[in-house]
Amino acid sequence: MRYLPHTEADVARMLRTIGEPSLEALFSQLIPDSLQLKRTLDLPPPLDEPSLRVHLGELAARNGALRPLAPGSPGPLVFAGAGLHPHAVPAAVDMLLSRSEFYTAYTPYQPEVSQGTLQAIFEFQTMVCELTGLDIANASMYDGASACAEAVLMARRLTGRLRVVFDSGVHPEYLETARTYLAALTGGIEVMSRDVASEKSAGALSRAALEARLGQDVACVVVQNPSFHGVVQDLVPLCEAAHAAGAIFVVVTTDPVAYAACQAPGHVGADVAVSEGIGLAIGASLGGPGVGLFAAREEFVRAMPGRLCGETVDKDGRRGYVLTLSTREQHIRREKATSNICTNQGLVALAFTIHLSMLGKSGLGTLAKLVYSKTCYLRDQVASRLGKKGYSLPYPLAPIFGEVCVRVPSALGDATTVVEHCLEKNIVPGVALGRFSQLERDLLLIGVSELHSKEEMDKLISVLEEVAR
Question: Do the Cβ atoms of 433 and 414 come closer than 8 Å?
Fold first, then answer.
């Protein structure tokens, strides 16, 4: 879909410039008067952009066009999330992103010819700080998983400690990325199991359990909120426990929209926050590229990985932007570097920044409310309708956002069976968690966003009912 930014005043100005009184007069030599439409087009009422995309897709499907694999499209109905959360990205984002000054921007290490790129990075950093409630943010990392691993390395450098504690609610692929980073280093990662002893605390890591695993050798504690299973928890007691042991507290959030629904990491005392912003930038892209958000407290600025853009003034007092506090050479010094990542996902970060500026604070809040209400609706349908068919919610009382974790009936074996049946009905029902752990092979993780309508969620529930018959 194309975004056309020209207003009626813009069109009138262009016509005056070329000396034509109207668009009709401009095209009169190309289109004979007998072929010109003399009436207003018979069009239905206006639609919001996501609905218009669906409608245009339905029209295209009549011609046998390839159907896109995206939520809300006329193709397969997709409820896959599990750390990759697509949202409705306006067509205007792609239009602005495609401007030549962004596509051909020079390296930001040369500020005299890169002010546009540097300002875009500065705006991105500012927005990440506002989202996370922390003091400073870098120019972005490769993706959320590498940002998490870099946070672990930074904590080890700052504390001089070697042991790292991961909550088991952190995305399994983020955990494996961190393990890969540490594979050749001394020390390791311990994974904490979540407390499921009572329904009230189901899906949440308890402070008592965390304190039992902490010690003076722990560099950092890594917790995801909402968790990989979509569970939202109170981070304050966990943060207090980590700080009492002298450890750095790192919060992972795979969908930045959750920042508008949950307490920002910085507001609950977290030291570092990392996230994956691709869902608000360009959507899913076969595994990449992503855009990793990385924010931290100001006292950590010298130890932060990646680039950092700052605001300054030139010799004439004019505002300008430069890369600051570190040089590229610092990042290529191997073991002496704060990071071996000396670049950033600039174009994806720019798309993220453009979209977020369009949403604004109120728009992001409205989006978060939409996602939350749809998540709650789907969970209620699982409990009321699918409960009669043997499905259950492993965390029935826990607050959730963006994901609904469902245990499939034991008679079906595992969640893969459910996925295969739904694919035959042109539905991707979610992610079978057996691919990450055999202990969770009976769990299906269903991703929900503003792109899913009530009718689509009801359709998913009906197909899941059919599977259990």
Answer: no
Amino acid letter, residue 259: Y
Whether 198 and 301 map to the same domain: the answer is yes
| Identity of the amino acid at 260 | A
| CATH of residue 125 | 3.40.640.10
Residue 465 pLDDT level (bands cut at 50, 70, 90): very high
Q: Is residue 39 part of a domain?
A: yes
Beta strands in 349-439, from DSSP E residues, in sequence order: 403-407, 427-428, 431-432
Q: Within 13 A of 64's CA, how many CA atoms are on the CB side?
A: 0
- CB-based burial label for 216 (10 Å; 0-12, 13-18, 19+): exposed
Residues of the domain holding 57: 8-61
pLDDT in tens, 117-129: 999 999 999 999 9
Higher pLDDT, 43 or 270: 270
Alpha carbon 377 to its chain's center: 22
Q: Please indicate, yes or no, whether residues 348 and 368 belong to a single structural domain of this protein.
A: no
Q: Is residue 72 part of a domain?
A: no
Which strands make up the sheet holding 189-192, listed edge to edge? 136-137, 292-296, 272-276, 248-253, 218-224, 163-167, 189-192
Identity of residue 339: S
Chain segment 60-108, per-residue pLDDT in tens: 767 644 444 444 445 689 999 999 999 999 999 988 988 877 776 667 8
Beta strands per DSSP E along 101-162: 136-137
State how many domains the chain has: 3
pLDDT for res 68 = 45
Q: Is residue 1 part of a domain?
A: no
71: left (phi over 0), alpha (psi -120 to 50) or beta: beta
Report yes or no on 70 lying in a domain.
no
CATH code, domain carrying 429: 3.90.1150.10
Do both 248 and 379 map to the same domain?
A: no
88: number of Cβ within 10 Å: 21
